[in-house]
Structure formats: C-alpha cells, structure tokens
Amino acid sequence: MKIVLLGAPGAGKGTQATRIAEKYGVVHISTGDIFRKNLKEGTPVGLKAKAFIDKGQLVPDEVTCEIVAERLKEKDCEKGFMLDGFPRNVMQAEALDKMSDVDLVLNIAVDLDKLMARLTGRRVCRECGESYHVSTFAGNKCSKCGGEVIQRADDTEETVGKRLKVYSEQTQPLIDYYTAKGKLQSVDGMKPIDEVFAEVVTVLDKVK
Ligand code: ADP
Ligand code: AMP
C-alpha cells in the first residue's frame, strides 16, 4: 500500500503511523523525523532545516522533495510506504504525483483549537520517536524501547502557534486537492487513540 497521512500538527499522524506500521508492515517515512535525525547528526541538510524548524516554518520545497524522492527509491519502499508529514503544500503534492501514484490519502480530522494542548503536552522518545502526552505519561523512559523521552524544541506555545497557521494556510488546501482526485478518506481524530485506529483499520483493510 502507498499511503499519505494528512492532518494538522498534533492530529495524531505519528501515533497512528506506529500502529499502522506494526499491523501492516508498511514503511513509515516521516519528513519531520528525517530532519530531526539530520539535525542531531549535524549534516548540511540538518543545519539548513534547523532555521525553518525553529521558526515553525516549512523547510524549502526543493530540500524536502529531494529527500523524499531519494527515500522512495530505497528498496524497502518497493512494496509500499506511508508518508507522514509530506506533502505539506500543493507544490509538494504535485512533486509527489511525479514520484509515485499513491493509493490513498488518509486525513486525520481534528478541531484545530484543541491542538495547542496536545502539542505543548507532547513528549517523544529520542530513539524510536514514540509519542506520549503528559496527561497520561510520567517519567522519561520510553515504554517501547527504553529510550529517553523528551519535549521537542518546537513544541513551545509560540512555535506551535506558527505551525498551526502554516497548516491552515498551506496544508489544509490539500484536503480539496486530494478530494478532487478521489483519493481522500477521513477519520475522526478527536476520538481516543484506539478508536481512531479502529477507524483507520476499517479504511486500510479495503486498500490492502
Ligand atoms: P502528529 O504526528 O500528527 O504531529 P502525534 O501523533 O505526535 O501528532 O500526537 C500529538 C500529541 O497528541 C501526542 O502527545 C499524542 O500522544 C496525542 N494524541 C495523538 N492522538 C490522540 C488522540 N486521538 N486523542 C488524544 N491525544 C492524542
Ligand atoms: P513534524 O515532525 O511533521 O511536526 O515536522 C516538524 C518540522 O519539520 C515542521 O514544522 C517543518 O519545519 C519541518 N518539516 C517536516 N515535514 C516537512 C515538509 N513536508 N515540508 C517542509 N517542512 C517540513
């Protein structure tokens, strides 16, 4: 299956992606994770991306599209992939159309005014990327891999505000873009995590 997870920052893309990857064995490609890995390793891409990530802006399309194009050429993507956080604007969606023909765009629909609390309370594992929330998670050890659980530098109130604005202006139009292509299916991301996943499975079982 070749799928795209669409949704605002904090909609639950990463949370659902982990579960989808486990159940369907599909490769999870998160552009945010790729940038953070590059940042940690101090690569030229990481250094370039840092200024944009810190300001809550999108990393330039040419950098992002090149990274995804190269990643999709890798062997593990031959049977399919799941993109998380890409595309994020119409230009990136058009670039993806040239790279591959995706089966489905799964939109995780949420109330934007609930996302500030989700994102400022988010904690993530440094090693495996698993997402937690302070309301249900205490401590600093990942229950999946034992890695250190930290707060992302861009999950501050100020940067989240900017990222939500970027979403409304640049990413939300992709809902219409993929609806027009007959590829969009939505699930209700305001439900509890397990219920969202049950909806996701209902949709994905038809794609398999
Ligand atoms: P995204 O990858 O879309 O930015 P995450 O999956 O990292 O979002 O989730 C953001 C935060 O919201 C995390 O703290 C996560 O635990 C929490 N979360 C995810 N899905 C739900 C949900 N359905 N209900 C409540 N909280 C959720
Ligand atoms: P995410 O992990 O998806 O929340 O992304 C974190 C940050 O990485 C974003 O705020 C952007 O600065 C950058 N980023 C991730 N994916 C993209 C993308 N497709 N295009 C541009 N920037 C991106």
Order of helices and strands: EHEHHHEHEHEEEHHEH
Write down the overall mean pLDDT: 97
**Proportion in β-strands:** 15-25%
- Whole-number radius of gyration? 16 Å
Shape: globular
Q: Going across the major beta sheet, what is the strand order?
A: 2-3-1-4-8
Bound molecules: adenosine-5'-diphosphate, adenosine monophosphate
Structural class call reads alpha/beta
List how many beta strands DSSP finds: 8
Helix count equals 9
Note the quaternary state here. single chain
Helix content: 40-55%
Q: Explain this structure to me?
A:
The chain is α/β, with parallel strands linked by helices. 47% of the residues lie in helices and 15% in strands. The protein has 9 helices and 8 strands. It has helices at 13-24, 31-41, 44-55, 61-72, 90-99, 115-120, 157-171, 173-180, 193-204, and strands spanning 2-6, 28-30, 81-84, 104-109, 122-125, 131-133, 149-150, 184-188. The strands form 2 sheets. A 5-stranded parallel beta sheet has the order 2-3-1-4-8, sandwiched between helices. A 3-stranded antiparallel beta sheet has the order 6-5-7. Strand 5 (122-125) and strand 6 (131-133) form a beta hairpin. Helix 1 (13-24) crosses helix 9, helix 2 (31-41) crosses helix 3 (44-55) and helix 4 (61-72) runs parallel beside helix 5 (90-99). The model has no long low-confidence stretch (mean pLDDT 97). It binds adenosine-5'-diphosphate and adenosine monophosphate.
